[in-house]
Amino acid sequence: MKKIYIPFLLCGLLLISATSCDDVLETKLDDEIRSEQAITDLISLKSAVVGLYDKMQSGTYYGGEFILAQELTGGIADATGFQERFSQLDKAIVPTSNTYIQNNWVDVYALVNASNLILSQMEELNLVDNDSKGNALFFRALGHFDALRQFGEFTKPNSKFGIPVSTQFLDAKTALLLPRSSVAASYQQIINDLTLAQTLLKNNANRFLVSKTAVEALLARVYLYKGDYDNAILYATKVISNSSYQLNARYNDIYDTEGSGEAIFELQFLGIDGNSLTEFLSISPPEVSANFNSYFKPMSMDNDPRANLYYNSGKVVFVEKYGSRDSEIDANAIIIKLSEIYLIRAEALARKNQTDLTTALIDLNVVRARALPAKPILLTDVPDFDSFVTILLSERARELGFEGHRWFDVVRLNKAQTILGIDTFRNVYPIPQNEITVSKGMIEQNPGY
């Protein structure tokens, strides 16, 4: 069989799913992929959609390192092993050669291109299935969003440094012609896809599948990041008002019971396709541990039950959200849950009215009261917006820790320099250098790198 060698971006665009990459990867020609993964009817179409969930399970995506990277760079995790890529992320000084960013770039664009293949084949063959199309649009949006908030200047609406936006299935030749879009155009494509997906998908009781509410929840998150607080409030309210979803009585229930009432979308792992998280978090010593002084200790001193998912060995703090032994590989990744939506609405409300935080505190305290009912946040605790941001960051870290949010939170809330002491240009990861090289300058590097 004829083969070629193509560097990372093209591997991602040619649907390669890899847990690790060398300088080059062996991959098949586009026409060979189409013949082997042909979508010919509704049955093969639905099978291809299942493949999108599988791509998210990559060990360098939601199956592991994407989640860990954001906690390391965001300062609530420590690199306590010997992996150079984790040590670089821990310092929040990420070189263009970091192997995590190389591998994750492949992951996000593999998800985008697999979604594009489904959408193009549906159009070409006149296949009509709203659920399949809605899933493909959701995953294309998620892939682009994960790329934008890592590799684009996502907090700068007027920046030209967005991401390559792909809406067509790309082969090796056409992939070379894909430049970066602006931040505004990147957001618009993400929102367009989710808005259409919302009209196609229905709600269902299965929290392991994308639903209409999952789309609404992701829209709330995207609008918050974009700075469109009216729409963030609108979509968060849609989700919160849906009686099919409710906060669990205890915080830890979402980890003990898969697909609980609080889960909006969980990525399900089974023994045959397990995650990599416990491998990194539960070995002794772990490759990645929770930071003791600034993260675990304040929770523990508050007797916060959210600290019960961490174990202080006296040397490092093990993270047990996904299991306490590295052989436990079937814990789900929580992609979106209801408590995050309350915190999204709280932040959006506070940003809209920074002089009156009363309404924002109501939502924040809905989440806090479950863990610490005797210690609500009072108006006197937040005399100004900046103090509200400090408390919000703490609550988001406790509630969403080791679920892949922290780095984006400190950047979005303009605290990266204060908390991490890094140069401003490092608020965004660099584009992997091999992507710059293979594009022959079509993809421009982020400023400062």
TrEMBL record:
UniProt name for this protein: Outer membrane starch-binding protein
Keyword presence, tRNA-binding: no
GO annotations of cellular component type: cell outer membrane
Highest taxon, organism lineage: Bacteria
Chief location category: membrane
UniProt keyword list: Cell outer membrane, Membrane, Signal
Domain RagB/SusD residue range list: 292-417
Leader sequence residues: 1-22
Organism: Flavobacterium circumlabens
Subcellular location: Cell outer membrane
Domain SusD-like N-terminal, residue spans: 50-224
Family in the record: Belongs to the SusD family.
UniProt xrefs under PROSITE patterns: PROKAR_LIPOPROTEIN
Keyword Membrane recorded: yes
